[in-house]
Structures are given as C-alpha cells and as structure tokens.
Recover the amino acids of this structure.
C-alpha cells in the first residue's frame, strides 16, 4: 500500500513539473469540436482514457473469477456440512478393548505362530 501511495506522489510531482515547465496551449479536435487546452490537460485526459479502456478489458475477467471463487467456497461449505452429517459421533461401545494382562495375549495366537511351532516340533 505504501508503494502505491509513493507512486501516486511521485506521479503528481512529475505532473506538476511538466505543467509548470510547459505552458503550451494545444488545439485538440474531438469529432467535430475543436478545443484549445493546456498540453498537460490533454496528456492527463489521454492517460485517463487509456486507464479506463484498460480497466474495461480487465474488469469482466476479474468479476468472472470472483464469482467462480464464491461458488467454489459455497460448494466447499456444502460438502463440509454433508460430511459432518454423514459421519456419526464416536460410540463408546465400538472402541476396541485392550487386553488387561499378558495371559489374554498368549491365548490369541495367530495361525502363523501355530504353524511355526508345529514345524519346529518333530
């Protein structure tokens, strides 16, 4: 933001210097109407017309992208809400119980462990 204001101030100073150093009046003809204006005013109007034309080309695409961003944010919110509605709250009975002591662990041997023991015992 500071850079923007700095550029504006520098532009105003340069514009003021040009105005005071070039007190020339020029004849400008627009369609059928002739005007006699200060050269600085003619430059300023030309610059402003260029800015307006450039903005007219850029603004529609910016609006389109902003609209698309709003639609996508809305869709994300809808999907998050659906996900929250679909996932049930955690149930205390669904949790796996851990064995209380080592004897319970020994009782639950896997098939691989049993096969390995049988292969070792002739």
């Amino acid at each position: 933001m500071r850079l923007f204001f700095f550029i504006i101030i520098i532009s105003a100073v340069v514009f003021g210097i040009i105005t005071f150093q070039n007190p020339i009046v020029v004849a400008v003809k627009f369609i059928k109407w002739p005007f006699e204006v200060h050269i600085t005013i003619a430059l300023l109007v030309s610059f402003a017309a260029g800015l307006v034309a450039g903005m007219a080309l850029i603004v529609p695409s910016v609006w389109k992208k902003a609209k698309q961003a709003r639609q996508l944010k809305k869709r994300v919110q809808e999907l998050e809400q659906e996900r929250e509605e679909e996932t049930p709250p955690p149930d205390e009975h669904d949790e796996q119980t851990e064995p209380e002591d080592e004897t319970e662990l020994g009782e639950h041997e896997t098939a691989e462990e049993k096969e390995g023991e049988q292969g070792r015992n002739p």
